[in-house]
Amino acid sequence: CTGALCSFEAKFLQTHNAYRKQHGAPPLTINKNLCRSSQEWAEYLLSIRTLMHSSGEYGENVYYAWSSASKRLTGREAVESWYSEIKDYNFSRPGFTSKTGHFTQVVWKDTKEVGVGLATDGNTTFVVGQYLPAGNISNAGYFERNVLPAGSKVSTQNKDYESLFRPY
């Protein structure tokens, strides 16, 4: 990545990983293929001016912003917006709801990689995050194991854990 998009991508990843750490989830790494498909989807959404999901095998969060002034997003705003759904998540009754699905994908413990796309015309901006493995799996016990309350410790039992730390 180059220039402004590179710093957007870095801030997007950094914001995810700061929130994930609070919830005992290991850090994500950037997946360039997911970045490509996220970018294509963001550009498509901008072209149709509609917020909707693609039909991929990955997890996906979408974000829309409009401003009368051309305001540059840093990569933090979309993730903060998704994470803010925590206020509606009931940790004592874990599971999927349409009001909390962005939050649960951000902190989903088993997700390892993320890609991001950004499309803007100066006023209207779409941000797409795509995740592998996908979160929000409704099988019994999955939400309990993957969406941990804030303050949970990151488990180091995962053998792949050390390899996820990459110096920036």
UniProtKB/TrEMBL annotation:
Q: Which GO terms describe its cellular component?
A: extracellular region
Q: What is this protein called?
A: GLI pathogenesis-related 2
Q: Which domain of life is it from?
A: Eukaryota
Q: Which PANTHER family match?
A: CYSTEINE-RICH SECRETORY PROTEIN-RELATED
- List the Gene3D superfamilies: CAP
Domain SCP positions: 7-139
Q: Which InterPro entries does the record cross-reference, listed alphabetically?
A: Allrgn_V5/Tpx1_CS, CAP_dom, CAP_sf, CRISP-related, SCP_GAPR1-like
